Amino acid sequence: MDFKNQYKEKLTTAQDAVKCVKSGDWIDYGWCTGTADLLDRALAQRYKELTDVKVRGGILFKKPAIMQVPDTSEHFIWNSWHMSGVERKMMKEGATFYAPIRYSELPRYYRENTGSVQVAMFQVAPMDAHGYFNFGPSASHMMAMCEQAKIIIVEVNENLPRCLGGKEEAIHISQVDMIVEGENSPVSELGGGGPATEVDQTVAKLIVEEIPDGACLQLGIGGMPNAVGSLIADSDLKNLGVHTEMYVDAFVDIAAAGKINGSCKSIDRFRQVYAFAAGTKKLYDYIDNNPQCMSAPVDYTNDVRTISQIDRFMSINNAVDVDLFGQINAESAGIKHISGAGGQLDFVLGAYLSQGGKSFICCSAAFKGKDGQLQSRIRPTLAPGSIVTDTRANTHFLVTEFGKVNLKGASTWQRAEKIISVAHPDFREDLISEAEKMGIWRKSNKK
Hints:
- Residues 279-435 form the Acetyl-CoA hydrolase/transferase C-terminal domain.
- The protein is an alpha/beta fold and 447 residues long.
- The chain has 2 domains: 3-181, Glutaconate Coenzyme A-transferase (3-Layer(aba) Sandwich); 198-437, Glutaconate Coenzyme A-transferase.
- α8 packs across α9 (223-233) and α9 packs parallel to α10.
């Protein structure tokens, strides 16, 4: 096949490509690093002609041009599968909404909803000799989404890493309707959230001492998981594996320290498996054409059945707050939206089912509010409107700077005692008093 001729035939401008968008359409912008850029600006220029265009995407690095037009909500609505800081700010302005779903369900959701995508437009790496455009660091749910799209427009970015995989990491030119050559902007970077704090380091030490040689790691985003990664890189641990939803800079550091080889994994041996990657240029350079790294769809990486097959699986994630029943909120502060369900529950369940596996939910015991007053992250009950990301029946280890406790199998009074034991000392008496009122405290409990 002469793919170069096909390429020329389908090559067009961003302005001409977006003419296919009609009022009322559902549009997909891709995901994270693959979010449309030049096409987004071209579509924004048409805003006066369009109403009620519903756009899906997630983990934005910058505010899309379509969300900056006058009277935005009359023309475009942004629907996020997972919120970034940019999207949280967009929510305050209106016309931006979160779509609650377990991240692992996205491919199935698309495949079972025929006709749910009128136009898909997203960034890809340059076409290879076999006619394939690589999705870059975001295999995620992209192929399933493309299977439902009536029109597919790819925006080529020469700087997007070519991420090798096992399946569904690229789309063939025969499936593409239009090709737009982008401006080859640098791939958007996601920082690690600043240097680890003393609290982060303390929590990290408590977790790392639980990790054995040959373990397989999943790290969430944020200061504490990054601190765990740094400690692992400096530790004596060896023969580690990686199987994660999001590939972050910490994995690059651990690999550079010679700790990762994947030799003990029961599946995908010697491969670092991930659904999407976001971080600094260091990360993008590392995963580019790296056969050790395996880009895979999220219904594989996050499937509890996949995770549970890997022995000594260690899942490490953050929480916003936790209540005395062991319910974990990782998504909101009351009704104020912060993140999304993502894959946290999948990894909490999968890690526990793994032979020798452990799931860790970590957070600081307290934080300072806007008024400067110290507030406990451990609450009697979650605040009204808070989202239960991990139910009480599924929580395994809870870790704060004051210790770690295993909640699995503990009755309500045991849970309350354990959870209070890792709360900030300034709040423990009040928490005991509330536990007594709720009938989950026994006279034999420690005070």
